[in-house]
Amino acid sequence: MSSQAGTIKTRIFAIRTTAGQEQNVALLIERRCLAKNIRIRAIVSPSDVRGYVFLEATGPNIVNIAIEDVKHVKGWVSGKVNFEDIYKFIKPRPVTELVGVNDKVEIIAGPFKSMQAKVTRVDKAKSEVTLELLEAPYTLPITVHAEQVKLVSHGEPPKPEAEKEKAELSEKEKKTDIFKAFGDLEEE
């Protein structure tokens, strides 16, 4: 008997869902498969793909049983989904690609574990992030490995120097306008 005789060929099926309900649908399908012993090999719900959940199964009949009457499922897309098509959504990305200057992060390892910080610099070559601790009473810049931080929220992107200078000039103009207005009042 050959080694291929023991393996069963599977396919990946794209399941259409209500946008924003992908995680819930994946959990409902998982519970149904466990309760009814339905042979679904994998359930994938990538955060970058809205409105779809991917199932790995031996055939469409098993997928139909797994998604039957599941809330927020709109059906499945006929056609072939290649593993390479969804791999780009599930492969881990380096943290330095996700984090930018002014983003709020949580430190997940090291002596500052569970503290919140603001990113001041990202060094992609060294995979390091320079942070300012938000919970410290004074500005304390620290440099940690990028794998030691978790993104909490994106901040405002840093302004280029030319825009900063324009903003400062407009502030000065506003001040001079106010002083001019006061000067006009005093003259009256």
What topology, given as strand order, has the largest sheet?
A: 8-7-6-5-9
The residue fraction in helices comes out at 25-40%
Mean pLDDT: 82
Oligomeric state of the chains present here: single chain
Instruction: Spell out the helices and strands N to C.
Output: EHEEHEHHEEEEEH
The CATH H-level homologous superfamily of the largest domain: NusG, N-terminal domain
Describe this structure in words.
By secondary structure, the protein is of the alpha+beta class. The chain has two domains: 11-90, 2-Layer Sandwich (Alpha-Beta Plaits); 95-153, Roll (SH3 type barrels), CATH 2.30.30. It has helices spanning 22-36, 60-67, 83-90, 95-98, 161-187; strands at 11-17, 40-44, 52-57, 73-81, 104-107, 116-123, 128-133, 141-145, 149-153. A five-stranded antiparallel beta sheet has the order 8-7-6-5-9. The longest helix is centred in the C-terminal third of the chain and has 27 residues, at 161-187. It is elongated, with a radius of gyration of 27 Å. The relative contact order is 0.11. The mean pLDDT is 82.
Write the layout of secondary structure elements.
Layout: E1 11-17, H1 22-36, E2 40-44, E3 52-57, H2 60-67, E4 73-81, H3 83-90, H4 95-98, E5 104-107, E6 116-123, E7 128-133, E8 141-145, E9 149-153, H5 161-187
Give a brief outline of the structure.
The chain is α+β, with helices and mostly antiparallel strands and 188 residues long. The chain contains five helices and nine strands; from the N terminus they run βαββαβααβββββα. Strands 8-7-6-5-9 form a five-stranded antiparallel β-sheet. The protein has a four-stranded antiparallel β-sheet with strand order 2-3-1-4.
